[in-house]
Amino acid sequence: MDIHEYQAKEILAGFGVPVPRGGLAYSPEQAAFRARELGGTGWVVKAQVHAGGRGEAGGVKLCKSEHEVYDFAKGLLGRQLVTRQTDQNGKGVYRLWVEEATDIAKELYLGFVLDRKSERIMLVASSSGGMEIEEIAEEDPDSLVRVVVDPAHGLVEYQARQLAFRLGLMGDQIGPMVKAVRACYRAYRDLDATMVEINPLVITGAGDLVALDAKMSFDTNALYRRPQVAALRDPSQEDSREAMAHDNGLAYVGLDGDIGCIINGAGLAMATMDMIKLSGGEPANFLDIGGGASPERVMTAFRTVLSDPNVSVILVNIFAGINRCDWVAKGVVEAYKAEGLTLPVVVRLAGTNVDEGRKIIDESGLPLITAETLAEAAEKAVAARPKKAA
């Protein structure tokens, strides 16, 4: 789960990371008030969306007057911001962060991620901040500093101090850098984060260290024990289909194809999507209904898949173990009738109570397409798609 910049800054500030003063705004009037409240002669207004590259896309601006803050906020709020990290539809801008302007003398990059190869938390830093880490790795690879954190000891002080030296810091800058780096590590560890990034981490003209931008992502599977983090979720920044699935406890990822998939088990879902592509089609989604799927849960899965207007065929592929094919079959029949479906539905059942499930499908009187194997189901789903006009 991702959160907004201002939320990440609030969290990191609570752990001891220095951040600029700022305020949240939901309207142009509120944005201008925030500027007046902060005081000074310059403010940075930032669109709060779950995507990088906001500055290049026109989502960040340094304003010199309250009127300029108001005008920029008015033109930005309610707009779909398209950046290099979004799709063509962009992300909706519904809140802004108004922040005091900072005198920047030097920009650094600081990030914590899970390195699956070493099975450790990896600290990545660079003296070339302000760019995405991929750009830094390509344009200035020698500036990258990597530190592997041993989970038995955590990030110890000497590692943070060595990092500060390697980034070219000196004198009074070392202590604040050590404090900030270790604070980021504690936030990562204590809140089950999967990523903490400060870019840029700046040294001001006065020599102070300030986190000018921040991103945090969290392990969705750990949110049950982090209610304070779960409360920061912003459904407006998520794919509407994925948000709907999340609210109904389904594992769903939207894709660009037209064959909707309802499957139990992540491995079988991946295999089904591969088989659809091998048969010449394109899956519209990944959807795992999980174990013990009741007819009601199957109906919910149908509604989730049908929320994608691009879906022209639905493929139901169930290999029942914990699940029961008769439950799934009842759900398919009830969903077909309740939704008044006219598009083709291909059903492949195997496993527990498969004969009962197939009997329910056969006796339903509905034009459901059945298949014995995964390959056959994928081929029939691809063949059932509407023919495109020449």
Could you characterize the architecture of this molecule?
The protein has 390 residues and is of the alpha+beta class. It is 35% helix and 25% strand. The chain is built from 13 helices and 18 strands. It has helices at residues 5-15, 28-38, 66-76, 133-139, 157-166, 174-190, 227-230, 240-247, 266-278, 295-306, 325-339, 354-362, 374-383, and strands spanning 22-25, 43-47, 60-63, 80-81, 91-92, 96-100, 104-115, 120-126, 144-149, 193-204, 209-211, 214-218, 251-254, 259-263, 285-288, 313-320, 345-351, 369-371. The strands form five sheets. Strands 7, 8, 9, 10, 11 and 12 form a six-stranded antiparallel beta sheet that branches. The longest helix is centred in the middle third of the chain and has 17 residues, at 174-190.
Briefly summarize what is shown.
The chain is α+β, with helices and mostly antiparallel strands and 390 residues long. 35% of the residues lie in helices and 25% in strands.
